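Quick one: structure for this chain?
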Amino acid sequence: MFDNLRTNLRAALKKVVGASDINEELIDSLCKDVQRALLQSDVNVKLVVTITKNLKDRALNEQPPKGLPRKDHIITILYNELSKLLGYTGETIKNIDKSGEIAADTLPLRPGGQNILLMLGIQGSGKTTVTSKLARWLTKSGYRTGVIGADTWRPGALTQLKMNCSRIDVEVYGEETNKDAVGIVRAGLKHFLPENLDVILVDTAGRHKDETGLLDEMRSMYAVAKPDLVLLVIDGTIGQQAYNQSKAFHDAAPVGGIIITKLDGTAKGGGVIAASAATGARVMFIGTGERIDDLEQFSPTRFVGRLLGMGDIKAILDMAKGLELQGDENQAKRLLSGKMTIEDFYSQMENVGKMGFRNVIDNLPGLSGMVKEDHLDAIQGKLEKWRVIIQSMTRNEKMNPEVVNDSRRKRIARGSGLTEHDVKDLIKQYHNSKSMMKQAKGRQMQGMLRRLGLG
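Got it. Here's what it folds into:
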């Protein structure tokens, strides 16, 4: 996702990091590189001009905080300006989660009551699929969830919704032969009332911003459902058009949040996020793949940190928790801190594969951006070999790979059916990863992350 934007922004930062002197010429060059990177990602020209003007003014006129090098201060300014471009206001939206604790950066749900979420979007935006993904996210977060299928326009919409939600044990209310969408919503709310659910999602028919009849139906549905939150689903491939689309829907029903789909592989991702943020509605989730678990909470600051190569440790821990690895949290922390053993490495392999190697690599400071797409298949092949090799090691060898000498290496190779070179490769890569992760968690990286609000 956003490979070109990520590559171009990091190339711009390298000029600053490698410069012997910070002067106006260097700042101008940085601004031009940032402009080029954002324009290629379909960000609106006016927004690009604004962000680079602010970047230049602040870089030339602001004095760095005491003890902060000027180079780091410029990177901090770029980080802050990009975060504002993507919707960061400096405020953290909070709510009470199911444990009674304050939870940040999530859906603003009322505790102890039924929350109704109305899903809107044009046809083809992926709204029905996202409704299933959001139901999955809610159930994993501990919320009792039901879904009302009120898309009476698209053939097969209700069938698709029921099929997806049956896999996550979420009930869907719908009426196959009834074309009265507003009536279905009214009946669905009545159906779920005795079940005392925490959240009810209402999937609606796809609408075009210029289709008056459908927008009128949406207004009627809004009046009947009285939703606590309206979520607009936007196709990530439409770029800057997202602004007009968001505004049209917002005029008909107050949109409280946006979910962006199909961001993987699109060159217009920067444009759709920036345009959506410009409407004032917060981007709450982004779709990151085809699986029902591929829905990620959107945080402008964390997202920009990953774009600039600073990684996102929290995202890794979130993904691990999503795989029900909470019981192994200490093991995950050892993995991320560079204190892992080969046994830790082995136990995490399958889980890393489920999370997606690209997601893991992009979120780890020190590894983010270092592995290109065409290398991922090779990594997958190596991991298969490494899994067999580790199964052939003794517990002591897994805990202390330093004890693997020539005779042990030969025994492990025979036991795994692979070569001694493969065993050497595993141990070498293990040490390299451990070393890089230690460096990423070192004092300099920790200082940078704290200054940027990531650590």
